Amino acid sequence: MNGLPERVRLVIFDLDGVVYRGLEPVPGAPELVDFLHGRGAAVRFATNNSTATRQAYVERLGEMGIRASADEIVTSTSATIEHLRRHAPEVNTVLAIGADGMEAELRDARFAVTMAADAVAGEPGAPLDRAYDAVVVGLDQAVDYARLSVAMAAVAGGARLIATNADARYPTPAGFLPGAGAIVAAIATATGVTPEVIGKPAPAMFTAILDAAGVAPSETVVVGDNPDADVAGAHRAGCAAILVLTGVADRGTVALLDGERVPEAVAEGPDEVRALLAPRLS
Length: 282
Description:
The protein has two domains: 10-48 and 201-280, HAD superfamily/HAD-like (Rossmann fold), CATH 3.40.50; 90-197, HAD superfamily/HAD-like (Rossmann fold). It is built from eleven helices and 15 strands. It has helices at residues 29-38, 54-63, 76-87, 100-108, 116-119, 145-156, 180-191, 204-213, 227-236, 251-255, 270-277, and strands at 10-14, 20-21, 24-25, 42-47, 73-75, 93-97, 112-115, 134-137, 160-163, 169-172, 175-178, 196-197, 220-224, 240-244, 265-267. The strands form four sheets. It has a six-stranded parallel β-sheet with strand order 5-4-1-13-14-15, with helices on both faces.
């Protein structure tokens, strides 16, 4: 199971379960990132999380001894921004459902942003005071009927419906909680509009990374722990994938994989990833 590219110029890491677990780095991950930087490979860190800014991730990784710049961090919000810039440059006015981090990233990208909470006026169903080019939806832990209503109205008025990610749920120490996909599903059901999904396993996140880096999919490897999100998403974007067994997958999982969920290689951890990539770096 080893069909990795002969030449690798770009390595895209998932974060949780690959680079770190909770507040601790995966053993060997800081050294692997340093090795790739030293060999001149482009490195990106990709997460479906839409709630935090890229700078927040830089600081979090730095506390773990992992060197990264904001340009190397790709959240589902920053991938959404890149997607809109390249494929929908006419989008300017945005109604957003999401957290403070998503709002900050959208504003920094010079979109005219109105948060759904601020667009609520009067009873649900009241007309909006303006039209929007797009409704961008991420995780909003304070979402309510009023916010869903204004998003529905904006989409009914012609706005594109953009999902930063479609994760139905996400893990917490106390168990699973509803994810951004649950909010997107409510708006899609109410409007009858199929959303444009950016985050994994949709290919748009990886495509945005490839476009911005100027690297071909055939020279890119995705390193992830989730066959359904990381491996399938990589393949949909034309990239190879290494499945690491430091997160949600184990050898039992690997034995049951089929189709687009089968990686080009499996690694126990960062040391094996390094051994796989080292002879392929230019």
